[in-house]
Specification:
The complex is a heterodimer of chains A (169) and B (162). With 169 residues, chain A is mainly alpha-helical. Chain A is built from 8 helices and no strands. The longest helix of chain B has 30 residues. The chains are: A mainly alpha (169), B mainly alpha (162). Chain A: This is RNA polymerase sigma factor.
Chain lengths: 169, 162
Amino acid sequence: MTQTEFLNIVMPFKDKVFRLAKRLLVSTEEAEDATQEILLKLWSNKTKMEEYKNVEAFSMTMTKNFCFDKLKSKQAQNLKIVHNNYEDGNTSLQKQVELTDSVHWVAKIIEGLPEQQKLVIQLRDIEEYDLDEIAKMLDMNNTAVRVALSRARKTIREKLTNTHNYGIK
Amino acid sequence: MVLNSIEKLLEKYENGETSLKEEQQLKNYFSQETVAPHLEMYKPMFAYFSVNKQEQFTKALPLKTKKVFNYKWIAVAAVAVLTLGYYFKNPVVSSYEEYAYGTYSNPEEALNEVTKQLAMISNHFNKGVSTVNYLEEVNKGTETLGYLNEMQNATNIIFKKQ
């Protein structure tokens, strides 16, 4: 497999890997490192890549596991991952200051969710994967994914309603 | 009417039962400028989702196949050095031997050289022997000591008298 062939396979989902990593690791730098690591791992195992049925799903599972490892690792326990990149990704919404603020709130709420729900929300609502695909990626069954998704959505909505009504009611 | 269906969709959405298409519908609805006031809180949620979807991985990928140092080449180099060394070693040693033993091709010349060497050796040997000749002086000294006996004889005579 040549470099271009590899890139053709990897390019479509590299952003998804990055966003998933960022969802779990929060810090952009950490997520970039993780993504790079994962893509390099794929590259070094490129001979095996043809055997995988779905490279994208496989990479997502890899990302999930890698990030969990990262979070569990000693480094993360000793040193809190520093992140100050809430402003990122909101460029298109600069005009609506009020809305940007609420968007921050969504980011914070999602950050507070349990890891599994974070993953499910990320994969479903942002990356728009099929429920079956998500189940396969996360090694869960379909119902469990649905339940996690429903809980996550409800939590987000409740908390948003609270902040939205803050000071009014 | 539209609002009604949206509300229904939202309920389904919260139960995790919407299809991707229906979710797209919701996203479209909430990306509008104006949404129903009681649904206002959903707006940032869907806005966040679509904004987040645009985030991209920008870091460069160093995809260069890492140049793993191949230890095979060390062996190759070692073999090359060994063979070269062996190749150049032999002539050097043979010339060294010639130098060490100093062979002459002409027998007459060799004889001359040998006699010269031997003469030098005997010369030095004689020099050594001549220094040993001084030992005779020592003998002379001991001979003179012999006179002490005479003195003893004299003393003997004296003591006999007493």
